[in-house]
Amino acid sequence: MLTLKDNLLIFTDLDGSLLDHDSYSWQAAQPWLDRLSAARLPLIIASSKTAAEIAILQQRLGLSAFPFIAENGAQIVFPPGWRHPARIFGADYAAIVNALHHLHASFAFRGFADADDATVAQWCGFTPQEARLARQRAGSEPLCWLDDQQQLAHFRHALAQQRLTLTRGGRFYHVMGRGVSKGRAARWLTRHYQLRHQRVFTTLALGDGPNDLPLLQSADYAVLIRALRSEPLSLPATRRGRLYRSRQTGPAGWSEGLDHFLLPGKARRIAHE
């Protein structure tokens, strides 16, 4: 079982995981944020949000000393003290938007590039300023799918011909370069940590959506947080003992997962209540 004294890297999704899906509150997770900070364990955000959005949240969460993964793995951003430039995986944003422009004639969808700040704010429940940050993209495009499911399969095929791929997040579909995922970025960052610190790290990942599955599969231990509005997700059965499915949603489920792996005595008491 894991402990707070282990060489541990923790990767976390935001919306629907560390943050409440609707209110974006992390109040239920604050006790664990305090514990991890006291133990000096890295908590690395891996989100579909942009670097501009995550940087602000990092400050509010007290996590600015750590790198983070943005746009579903399309970008890794390092803290200033690391003196390491941001890394982009896959196609850049201009290439993605250009490819999607040519697909509008065949499929019904709207991406962030097709909307203004006010429209994106309405889609996400953001303020116009927050929407502006969400539109500062580097390597992925969120979109609202307005066509049927049969067309979605054709859309995936059309994207593949452009060396692009599609993943489903909590609110949107996300178009990215082929091979881009939170899991790939997490593996790259874990290797970077190990080289930087000259020791092996154990990884624990927490997430709730389909776009989190590569992240959870890449980690040594995983917490699949119960999603508020989607069907239950599946992971390989070979992860027995290293995968925990939370009963609660959002930051309460996030904390429940850390209880299970890092405070096993408390987790057992909760299970019998």
Automatic annotation (TrEMBL):
Q: What keywords are assigned to this protein? A: Hydrolase, Magnesium, Metal-binding
One Pfam family per UniProt: Hydrolase_3
The EC number(s) given in the record are 3.1.3.70
Q: Name one GO molecular function term.
A: mannosyl-3-phosphoglycerate phosphatase activity
EC primary class: hydrolase
Q: What PANTHER family would the database entry show?
A: HAD SUPERFAMILY HYDROLASE-LIKE, TYPE 3, PHOSPHOSERINE PHOSPHATASE
Name used for this protein in its record: Mannosyl-3-phosphoglycerate phosphatase-related protein
- Which species expresses this protein natively? Serratia rhizosphaerae
Taxonomic placement: Bacteria, Pseudomonadati, Pseudomonadota, Gammaproteobacteria, Enterobacterales
